Structure formats: C-alpha cells, structure tokens
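WP5 quarterly update. Target: ATPases involved in chromosome partitioning. Source organism: Corynebacterium variabile. Length: 288 aa.
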Amino acid sequence: MAETNDGLFREPEMGLTGRPLRKIPTPASIDSHGPATVIAMCNQKGGVGKTTSTINMGAALAEYGRRVLLVDLDPQGALSAGLGIQHEDLDTTVYNLLVDRDATLEDALHHTAIDNLDVIPANIDLSAAEIQLVNEVGREQALARALRPVMKDYDYIIVDCQPSLGLLTVNALCCSDGVIIPMECTYFSLRGLALLHDTVDKVKDRLNFRLEVIGILVTLFDRRTNHSRQVMNRVVEVFGDRVFDTVITRTVRFPETTVAGEPITSWAPSSEGARQYRDLAAEVIERT
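Structure tokens (predicted):
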C-alpha cells in the first residue's frame, strides 16, 4: 500500500494488467551505438497487432535516440507499406539478401522520414524464399548472414515475422537475442501461445542458445469488456512478469496511421497509442 500525505494508506492504483501501476523510467540517452540487440516480433496468428507494434515500437525507440533497423519478413509487405514504402516493384528487398549472396544490404536499405529509423522492405517475391532455401546448407542462418554487416551500426534490429512458424520465422528466431510475442486479448490467441513457446524452446535448444522471450505484449485490449479482463488475468497468471506492464488498447487511430504511412508517434504524437508505444519502448530498453 502507498502512504498518503495524511499518514493513511491507500490501495495502489492498478494498471490494465491487474498489477499495481508502475512508473516506467525514461531511458537514459546514449553516446555510442551498437552492437545491435536483435528482436523477433513473432506470432503465428495473424491480426494480433504484430506489424503495428513493430513499426510504432521501432519509432519510439528511435525517439529515445536508439538507432533502429526494421526488417520486413512477411511477403505481404505490411510493414513496408505502413512506413510509406512503395515496395511492390523494388529491385532489391530482403528476399534478395536471403537467396543471393551477391546482393548487398546497402541496396536493400531504406531510410524513413523518422530520424534513426531504417527499414529493409519485403514484397511478394519473399514467398518463394522458403522453397529456394530448403536445400541450402545452413538455411536457418540466411538472415543472420545477411544482417551481419550492419550489426555494429544499430542499437536494435527488429524483425517483423510472417504469421506462420515456417523457415522464414525460424530464420528470424535463429538470429535474434529475444522474442516479443504480441497477442490479441482473446482466448483464441491465448491457446496459440503454447505452440509458439514450444517453437521458441526448440530453436533455443538446437540452433540459438541465447534466444529468450523478452516479453508478451497484450494488444487490442478493450477495457470495456469483461472478456478482455478475464483473458488478461489468465495471461498474467500463466506468464507472470513476462507480460509487459504496457498494454496496447484498441483504438481507431492505428488503422489511420497505416493509411498515412507513418508511425503513430509522429502522426498523432499526443495520442494514447503514441504514449503506450513510448512506454513499451522504455520497457524494452529496460529489459534488454
């Protein structure tokens, strides 16, 4: 309990997770950059706010002075489109970096309108990569090999995985230091977490011993419904401190930013969504 000015005690204010509300410290500024912490934003279920969270968390990290590279690893190219990149007809994308050893990362790299935020885009060409890589030696390490030249240039590299647990996602897990799992606040999403955790554990045991779950991010939370609160209670009960204190609530602003082609932190900087992603970025810095 917290003590008031009159010496009485009151119950602490509760956050959306059902835990006491915690003031997340503002990250300290840094004087140098790199080597990068690589994070896979991963969930085999679509529609959980994964790409939205990758874009906005990356932009918030950049606001805090961190150099950030976003990697679009989904053939749909939603991350690329969400940052205003006309990705359909690009000559060099992440696909070329995975399958062509002569492709250079500099040719694939795009600077965004946000300071400190770069992106490697994807388009439908990437859908052929799994078939082309399947017989390659070290096929799980193709993305790690492609990113190696810029590891020293960034503080965070965030990979937006496609909604599956195929070879592209395994590539992301193999090159990552940690995983952030966005999950929609529904029982259906909760059931899928067990399968994803099993995949993460297998990659950790066999291919990437440093891989850890950085946190579980609850998204699309509707504070008006009992269902959301019940699911949240269950998630916190099962996963404990792995659940981020920051919760992303359902808001109309996120679809609008997709159309605008920029993060909510710049499109609507004073909005609740922007504040939530700044809090999330601060938590990620705290945990990594």
